[in-house]
Design brief:
TIM Barrel; eight-stranded parallel barrel; 13 helices; globular
């Protein structure tokens, strides 16, 4: 029988992914840096109830330059933010000129992750990559990536996205299975699940060891404009759209999802313009309510 705390969500740890509380910045910007300081975001997140936070590489670099690694660590720990993610590494599997920049970012992710106690690195596939998908080659490269980040005790989560060539759960599973690394697996975002035509039943069937992160959000039943447009402008807080977040959460639990926190990633114009304390509290409150729906 469930305990009272579990039923009312009090034992559920939530992590605010970078875009969720980043404010007035956008994926099309040349650098992904929040106009609100890390100190402001961490304090707002803590006050709202969050137990973790995510940063982009640009934002992490900026914060480290501003506060120093010990300063960033203090900001996180002083605000009770136990869990820390970085995102997002692209082109990690490429063999052409893109790889040089990717490897530079990889080294920075490793350095910052080691200094700051990162628990997970999010990786993806660029929507600009139109080359044929070679699952075996990607699996080999993903395995090497996992080995690198295993040295700092971090997991590596591959996020499938319906606007790229690793578009669905079915596309991503062969890569993480082929890599066969204990610290490597999938980030399963509800928006990517719904928009890729993946079902919640498909999610429930994923082996628990292959799920390194779950991300929650909501949206309309149908995309507004292109998938990229819908993803970056029109996500909603949980319970304010038509995705049925409790059913998705139950599917993840049925799969045996057992990581220490649930991620929340929302990109929307409302959150970009709202004050940091408003966006932190609104998204936390609407998300935690999904774990004990009325």
């Amino acid at each position: 029988m469930q305990g009272l705390n579990e039923m009312n969500g009090k034992d559920t740890n939530l992590l605010a992914a970078f875009w969720t509380i980043a404010g007035d910045t956008h994926p099309n910007d040349s650098e992904w840096i929040s106009p609100d300081s890390l100190q402001m975001r961490a304090e707002a997140a803590s006050k709202a109830g969050w137990k973790g936070i995510g940063l982009s590489l640009d934002d992490c670099r900026y914060s480290v330059q501003k506060y120093g690694p010990p300063g960033v660590q203090h900001i996180l720990t002083d605000n009770g933010l136990e869990f820390f993610e970085l995102e997002i590494l692209m082109d990690w599997y490429t063999t052409d000129g893109r790889r040089e920049a990717s490897d530079r970012a990889r080294r920075e992710f490793l350095e910052f992750g080691s200094e700051l106690g990162m628990c997970n690195l999010k990786v993806g596939v660029s929507h600009l990559d139109l080359t044929p998908t070679n699952h075996n080659q990607m699996a080999d490269e993903f395995a090497k990536l996992c080995e690198d980040f295993g040295t700092i005790n971090a997991t590596v989560g591959l996020e499938f996205m319906p606007f790229c060539k690793v578009a669905s759960l079915a596309d991503a599973l062969p890569i993480v299975r082929g890599a066969n690394q204990e610290n490597g697996g999938l980030i399963i975002d509800i928006w990517h699940v719904v928009r890729s035509g993946t079902t919640y039943e498909d999610v429930a069937a994923v082996p628990a060891n292959l799920i390194k992160g779950i991300e929650l959000n909501d949206a309309n039943a149908s995309a507004i404009g292109t998938l990229m447009n819908d993803s970056t402008y029109h996500r909603k807080a949980c319970g304010e759209g038509e995705f049925n977040c409790p059913s998705f959460i139950n599917a993840a639990k049925k799969a045996g999802f057992h990581q220490n926190y649930w991620g929340v990633e929302i990109l929307s114009d409302f959150l970009r313009k709202a004050p940091v304390d408003v966006r932190a509290k609104h998204v936390f409150d609407t998300t935690i309510a999904q774990f004990n729906p009325v």
